Amino acid sequence: MELNESMVGDALTRLKRAHGQLAGVITMIEAGEDCAKVLTQLAAVSKALDRAGFKIVATGLRQCQDADRRGDEPPMSVAELEKLFLALA
Questions:
Q1: Three-class SS of residue 28?
Q2: What's the rounded Cα separation, in Å, for the pair 51 and 57?
Q3: Cα-flanking dihedrals φ and ψ of residue 48, to 5°?
Q4: Would you give the distance in Å from CA 16 to the centre of its chain?
Q5: Closest alpha carbon to 15 in 51, 39, 42, 41
Q6: In whole angstroms, how large is the CA radius of gyration of the chain?
Q7: Whole-prediction pTM
Q8: pLDDT of the chain along its 89 residues, tens only?
Q9: Please, where are the H alpha helices in the chain?
Q10: In angstroms, how far is CA 81 from the centroid of its own chain?
Q11: Residue 63 and residue 75: Cα distance in Å, rounded?
């Protein structure tokens, strides 16, 4: 399955936000910030990454459904999509 920005724009936005959050976490650690604050921000980064991944899997599912409706060969099988989804869990 090929991805482009128009298909996964929301996921890309989430990844860019997570990138910034991760840079902030690194800065916090380097500055000796409080452990609880660092872990709170790290949890936010983790959640943003998870949500981006799920968004990409959902995009793949829609592509496969659209291809099936048109009578075309889907870009991925249900088993492949399931494997990707479970890799995020």
A1: helix
A2: 10
A3: -65, -40
A4: 11
A5: 51
A6: 17
A7: 0.77
A8: 566 666 677 888 889 999 999 999 999 999 999 999 999 999 999 999 998 888 888 888 888 888 889 999 888 888 888 898 898 87
A9: 9-30, 35-70, 78-88
A10: 14
A11: 7
